[in-house]
From TrEMBL:
GO terms for molecular function: polyphosphate kinase activity. This is Polyphosphate kinase 2 (PPK2). Keywords: Kinase, Transferase. GO terms for biological process: polyphosphate metabolic process. PANTHER family: POLYPHOSPHATE:AMP PHOSPHOTRANSFERASE, POLYPHOSPHATE:AMP PHOSPHOTRANSFERASE-RELATED. Residues 29-252 form the Polyphosphate kinase-2-related domain. Coiled coil: none annotated.
């Protein structure tokens, strides 16, 4: 079974050394699709039990460069699972109200309720990525945020929130091809903005920012998983496996039924 790329807390990883298109080990689109279907079937039952139990929470965090496939990953790994089990939060440019609070205020509000699976499409890491690359806050401020993020994630895990953090690792050339494909397809042009080209010119700055976020916020309680994402089906396969495995480790159980129900006949 393909695995994400992980590393121990305290170890350092350089993204330029991590392949975005690794050897798939005999897997292909067909076999991956079959395995993903199996994983989602398992996750569906586990999500149902998680919701019924109402004691634990699973939070899937998806980060990645533009075109890395956050939306596509969500569509694939949640197929067939009751939408009532999910809380999906996309983190875009903060509102005026959100800017009037600390950077984690809007994030904490979006943490899923007990019994639910939460998915962050981008996350609190935007506040050590975009704000750093575009100099939106002083360096002294964003550098302090790594410790705050680690403390925040520790707080969540102590409150029975299981965090699965995935960095969707796409190559610069693959991003170019995906952006061009959006331009060439009239039905996909709505997804393209000239601003995407300006952001692409900052590729090196973003890679350095991501590298620091991965290295400084890779903890025992909330480790990073690097997902090679140049092949969409391979990316989806790994994330679906991570989601299923996380639910299995939570091992949610149905709550006991009310006493005295035996022999009752509904008329």
């Amino acid at each position: 079974m393909p695995k994400p790329i992980t590393f121990d807390p305290g170890d350092k990883i350089k993204l330029e050394d991590v392949p975005a298109r690794p050897d798939v080990g005999g897997w292909d689109k067909k076999s991956a699709a079959e395995r993903i279907e199996h994983n989602t079937e398992q996750s569906r039952e586990l999500a149902y039990r998680l919701y019924a139990e109402n004691k634990q929470t699973l939070l899937l965090v998806l980060q990645g460069m533009d075109t890395a496939g956050k939306d596509g990953t969500i569509r694939t790994v949640t197929t067939g699972i009751n939408p009532q089990s999910f809380q999906i939060a996309p983190f875009k440019q903060p509102s005026a109200e959100e800017l009037d609070h600390d950077f984690l205020w809007r994030v904490h509000k979006a943490v899923p309720r007990r019994g639910n699976i939460g998915i962050f499409n981008r996350s609190h890491y935007e506040d050590v990525l975009v704000v750093r690359v575009h100099n939106l806050v002083p360096e002294s401020e964003w550098r302090r945020r790594y410790d705050r993020i680690n403390e925040f994630e520790k707080l969540l895990t102590e409150g029975h929130v299981k965090i699965v953090k995935c960095f969707l690792h796409v190559s610069k050339e693959e991003q170019r091809e995906r952006l061009q494909a959006r331009l060439d397809n009239p039905d996909k042009r709505w997804k393209f903005s000239k601003g995407d080209l300006a952001e692409r010119k900052l590729w090196g700055d973003y890679q350095a920012a991501y590298e620091d976020a991965l290295n400084k916020c890779n903890t025992e309680h909330a480790p990073w998983h690097i997902i090679p994402s140049d092949r969409k089906w391979f990316r989806n396969l790994i994330v679906s496996e991570l989601l299923k495995d996380a639910l299995e480790r939570l091992d949610p159980q149905f709550p006991p039924s009310e006493e005295g129900l035996d022999g009752i006949v509904v008329e």
